[in-house]
Design a protein that fits this description.
Elements lengths: L4 H24 L4 E5 L7 E7 L3 E8 L17 E7 L10 H6 L2 H31 L5 H31 L5 E6 L1 H24 L19
Length: about 230
């Protein structure tokens, strides 16, 4: 058995834990995208918005002096009154008119559901890895690697669904939004995809039996896994 294999598994698992942390940060936060409306002349306030998978947050920003060329509201970091509410399709008793008017709720529900699958796959993969450490069951590393790979694929699909949602929101004639930008929650989701997908494949390669290194050696000569 390759003596460096346990070290490789632990190093890969450490990077995967970073990817899982980024995944959780992306799923629970509300900074996937920032939306800005057009500015009226001589206005002192404007309302920008940022949202995630579950909530929409609006912020009435007290504008500082801006140049005539500046046509959008923001940046979102400027001081102002902040208000957040869950999307109407997740909490029927609440209202979120801005989101309901400007995009189809199917996009939001799909992105959230796929992200939940990603979290589920990541949790199951982690359980498999921890059991392989405790019980010396190396065969559990193979399904764990596949679960991490599936988690990465799910979160990048969720990212693409959210991206399409934002594009439809901006292109809609029923909305005042004219400008958008992706924020740090979106970046966390993309980074988690890279780490989970790449490390999932890497963990699978580490878990596979050692290939023959000499022409006269066969796979049957390799030491069996425990």
């Amino acid at each position: 058995m390759d003596q460096s294999k346990p070290l490789k598994v632990r190093l890969t698992f450490s990077v995967i834990l970073v990817g899982i942390s980024l995944l959780f940060a992306a799923v629970v936060t509300d900074h996937w995208a920032v939306l800005s409306p057009s500015l009226e002349e001589n206005t002192t306030t404007c309302e920008a918005a940022h949202f995630g998978l579950w909530r929409l947050c609006t912020k009435r920003i007290f504008m500082q002096e801006h140049s005539p060329k500046e046509k959008s509201c923001g940046p979102i970091s400027l001081p102002g009154d902040h208000n957040c509410s869950y999307f109407k399709h997740f909490t029927p008793g609440e209202t979120s008119e801005i989101f309901e008017v400007t995009t189809q709720k199917e996009y939001s529900i799909s992105a959230a559901a796929i992200a939940i699958f990603s979290v589920g796959f990541a949790i199951i993969g982690t359980i498999c890895v921890l059991l392989s450490f405790r019980k010396k069951r190396d065969y559990l590393l193979k399904p764990a690697s596949m679960f991490y790979t599936f988690a990465g694929l799910c979160i990048i699909i969720s990212v693409e669904v959210m991206r399409q949602s934002v594009k439809r929101m901006i292109d809609s004639k029923e909305t005042a939004w004219i400008k958008y930008s992706y924020s740090w929650s979106f970046a966390c989701a993309c980074a988690s995809f890279v780490l989970l997908f790449v490390c999932g494949i890497g963990l699978l390669l580490i878990a596979l039996p050692r290939f023959p290194q000499n022409p006269w050696e066969t796979c049957m000569d390799a030491e069996p896994e425990h």
